[in-house]
Amino acid sequence: MTTVLFYCAIRGIATPHEMKMQAAPAKEEKPVKEEEPKVEEPKEAAPPKKEEAAAPAAEEDDDIDLFGSDDEEDEEVEAERNRRLAESQAKKKEKGVIAKSSIVLDVKPFDDETDLGELEKKIREVTMEGLDWKASKLEEIAFGIKKLVISCHVEDDKVSTDLLVEKIEEFEDEVQSVDIAAFNKL
Description:
Helix content: 40-55%
Strand content: 15-25%
Distance between the termini: 68 Å
Shape: elongated
Strand order of the largest sheet: 2-3-1-4
């Protein structure tokens, strides 16, 4: 009801209560001469000139930005982001940053009688450009069976992990499977 009253007040029209009072016949209990309050008919304002009407509408459109997007600011932010990205890429090229990764491989032997020391020597003989073998150790799996855990550093652009795993699995008589235990970017 409050919104209706507010709407009527803004538009300058009679409220539903006022309309009801005007439409209902007055009950006369006492013959008293009272003047009925005059309800002024709302006067319609003269239509605004076209220039004046267009200007406030344009101002309202400019002021109200429901989604917070401003084309000018977006373009400036985008240009700044692109400039910084280009600078960053130029610095990386100057420095010659090489993407490297550290990989820990679990090499499981084919059976419990496999000589893991000899297998480690064979694996270290696998050479590729951008491949550096690091530490290794033997870990017990179960029932006296051990696995070889060996780590290496690789240059991402030069060495494929899938190719490295395939080269180790080529030792079919000694290697059952190779799993990547850890893969970290350096």
